Amino acid sequence: MKTIYPLAVALVIISGLTACSHSDVPEPALPSTPSSKEKASIAVIDYREEMRNFVIGISQYAKAQNPQFAIIPQNGIELITTNGESNGTLAQSYIQAIDGVGQEDLFYGYTDDNVPTPSNDNLYLREFLNRIKASKKVLVTDYCSSKTNMDKSYSSNNTNGYTSFAANHRELNNIPGYPVQPYGVNSNNITSLSQAKNFLYLINPENYSSKTQFINAVAATNYDVVLMDLFIGSNNPFTAAEIDRLKTKANGGKRLVICYLSIGEAEDYRYYWQTGWRVGNPPFISAEDPNWKGNYYVEYWNADWKSVIFGNDSSYLKKILNSHFDGAYLDIIDAFDYFENR
């Protein structure tokens, strides 16, 4: 879970320095005040707009190869409006580029797992989600483990028009045993995200000893959408044939298989991580996330980082497309919070 900070606009403040001198005692020279031309040359980065542009670029690249490929950013819901306010003007180019939004901790997990989210925080998020739910699918992941809270999570999300998953492990490393069947289980053929009535969020396959065990476990479920990782282990990607097998529910209906992709942080266990990489090298690696060891905030507007994610045949997104996933679930969208508040 990423903390939602107060909304802010990143500003660069230039302080002028004035020097006082005595005619009889020379003073050390002080830096001169920047000229108007120099001030104008100092770039002010709009971190939110840069993230919107990043997502738009990812979407354009993917949909050029597969027009049905779904793009779903998780968290950072403030990006749907141009000013980051729930009643602001909708950011239409960004919204047109995505097929849904993901939101963690809406009803449970914001302050702690299996604990109801404070009403003010819940309302804050729902004011944004309600602006977009009529046109885009809203996927909510609540973190709760008691049956009572899981039931409340599903019913509350359904009442509000959201599609949800009650994760009983924050690690997202298991298929919950409760409920026995997914909430809203059906045998429909799910060919677009808008048709989904439920989903499974299983991006950490650490509890599965092999691809075969993982595939068999997921294939035995009736979830309409499966959110999973491209890899099992550090460098063992699922093949197109393996992903194709997962696109059929146990009851025979078709489903979507969506790939998790972190775009706001680099992860040192990924195939792209190179020996010698550290904070500042390459320049786009900004700082290690204090809450997730081995995860590093990146300057996501940097062209070199973008080329890691999309735009060429060796990029992460191209590997996802080659493995026949139906979409990408984009994480650390809210990295703009870090840069605005560092």
Note the main attributes of this structure.
342 residues; alpha/beta; five-stranded parallel beta sheet; 10 helices; 11 strands; 15% strand; disordered N terminus
Report on the structure:
The chain is of the alpha/beta class. Helices cover 28% and strands 15% of the residues. It contains ten helices and eleven strands. The strands form three sheets. It has a five-stranded parallel β-sheet, with helices on one face. Strands 2-3-4 form a three-stranded parallel β-sheet, covered by helices on one side. The protein is globular and about 55 Å long. The chain starts with 35 loop residues before the first helix and ends with a helix.
Identify the overall geometry.
Answer: globular
What is the CA-CA span between the terminal residues?
Answer: 18 Å
Indicate the percent of residues in helices: 25-40%
Structural class: alpha/beta
- Total number of helices: 10
What average pLDDT do the residues reach?
Answer: 90
Largest sheet: 5 strands, parallel
Q: Largest sheet, order of strands side by side?
A: 1-11-7-6-5
* H/E element order: HHEHEHEHEEHEHEEEEHHEH
Radius of gyration: 23 Å
Q: How many β-strand stretches?
A: 11
Strand content: 5-15%
List segments where confidence is low: pLDDT < 50 over at least 5 consecutive residues: 1-42
